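HUMAN: Please help interpret these tokens:
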Amino acid sequence: MFQTGVISGVSISHAHASVDEIDAASGESVSDVVTSLQVDSRVTEAFAIQTCNRAEMYVVTESDAAGQEILTPYVGGVREGAVVFMDHEESLRHLMRVASGLESLVIGEDQILGQLKTAAEDARGAGGVGPIFDQALTKAIHVGERARTETKINEGALSLGSAAVRLASREVELSGATGLVVGAGEMGTLSAKALASAGVDRIIIANRTVPHAEHVAAEVDVDAQAVAIDAAPAAAATADVIISATGSPTYVLDERRLSDAGNTVCIDIAQPRDIDPSAAQIAGVSVYDIDALESVTEETREKRDAAASAVEEMIDIELDRLLTAFKRKQADDAIRAMYESAEYVKSREIATALTKLEAHGELTEEQKAVVESLADSIIGQLLAAPTKSLRDAAANDDWTTIQTAMRLFDPGFDEPPQGTTTPNHGPHVDGEIPQHVLDQLSDD
């Protein structure tokens, strides 16, 4: 059976949801989510992306209704207003917007493109990426790259780390301060560099793998020290600002671990949370999460309106190209299935006819060719009209007609009868659409 289907998606992001709601919709990993989605036999492909700002899942099924039915349980713990379901076209557009940075908390930030690429590889490793998602994700990544090279969408863009430092600067004087960065990944590295640029005197980087923390410490231009994650509570006692960005599934810092922190601004940009919100009950300790960065990132958003408009136009053009290619591919697959089924029947019936004719005397090669040519002509004339109708159905987004054709002409038949010959002038070879039909369609 040829691959067919449509994409259905669901998004829980900072645009409508809180940090806790995003956390509630997130799985252990992209691979786990993709594997879980594929348990349903209706799912032919699956994809997911999880960042500190979003938890999104996508499936390919025969219909959008089936896709939404499958995805709904995954967001059952999230309030209705925070959940956005997307059909095929909306999903494709959204993935392009995500890759371009238009859906990010910090408009135009570069980290999301790398995160999307990583999610695509994780989904591929879990067996979720087939021909439809391969095409969709490749296009989204291409658009994300074009947006950054052909527009100013990311010119001077803040990262979440630098946005966190900007927020911290509103709460505490950073010049001469000590900063603690928990986590040595991409966000931790960006946070450390942003703190250094803001004028802190000293930075402590805490991480489970100390050599990774040492690598980050070596990249900043101020006095920096790497410590194990277990040393973070002690380091917090000397820090004026803490930025935490680990991938820990549990709190790294809580009320007990921060009890000796004193006057400290804590900014948690991890998903799920690194810092227990209840730590704000400690005298002198302030705790902020990603939701608190909205006021900071809004300034960047306003500066990027012109670039965002250019990216939107780019997405419109690229989406139209992708949809056109997708529709054509779906129609061609259905047409190919139709001709393969017809070829199977033709071959079987020719074999039967030739056997009966040869019972009255051996046929010449020319006579056999006449019989085969007759059968080819009948098939070509009978299928020319439905072939055009399937192309028209694709152009009009009539997926029901295409999928019905795929089921009716499922080429998953048995091997052709013994003794059947495949003519070199038949309606198709190896499932290809006859050239005279293609020529006719090109003329229409």
